[in-house]
Design brief:
The protein has one domain. Helix content is about 5%, strand content about 45%. The chain has one helix and 14 strands. Strand 12 (about 210) and strand 13 (about 215) form a beta hairpin. The chain is elongated.
Length: about 240
Amino acid sequence: MALQDASAVAPAFSPFHMEPAELDGLLDAHGAPAEIRTAMRCGCWAASSGQPDPGCDRCYPFGYVWDAPVTCRVYGPSRRGLRRYELAGTLDVGDAWFSLPTGMRPPHYSRIVLTASEITVDDTLTRGREDVIRFSRPVAVTRAHWSQRTSAPGVTPVTRTNVPLVLGTDLSVSGRRVTWIAETPPPGTRYVLQLRALAEYIVWEPQDRNEAGVALNYKFLCKRLDFLRHPAEGVEGMDTY
């Protein structure tokens, strides 16, 4: 890292300057493994309205598709905490920044997947209508259950109990698709999968620096992505989008 005295640097450069090759070397040595999927507008965008076709079966309703993943090493997420006040209390919210290899400039809505970072999440689905896991990179399903009413009809208060679902006996999961083995619960029942998934972020905008005509896009502002249900990802043969 070239940390120099301001008097020894040409006027076009800031007191703190890092050559692109130095940044790439630091990422190679200390960065986290990741996949970058570049976002592109779907071909259904209409120039007259500036909106995607709501009937498009490739991108609806998002208007974007993604390239196949490119592996690299990144630094992040670096966070800046913010506090937002709501009527029911306060929420800790914040943005995340990533440093990417030089020359890599993913546009808005591109996706960064941290391939060595797992999170535990719950995915609520509906049997027969939503049997595809919404998190784009599930690793393993650890638990599953559905909720059954235990109080008699018309009796208040209504009481319910969670009924465990056994993987391999009640249902099976292959990739992101859920296949039912047992007849219970009936179609239309909501059920919950607890799973481990890879952490994912959406690229919001680059925090560009430009010195002497050299683009130094060291940071990208990103938003945490829990899930983004993309219809093409649930269609056989279209999981690269």
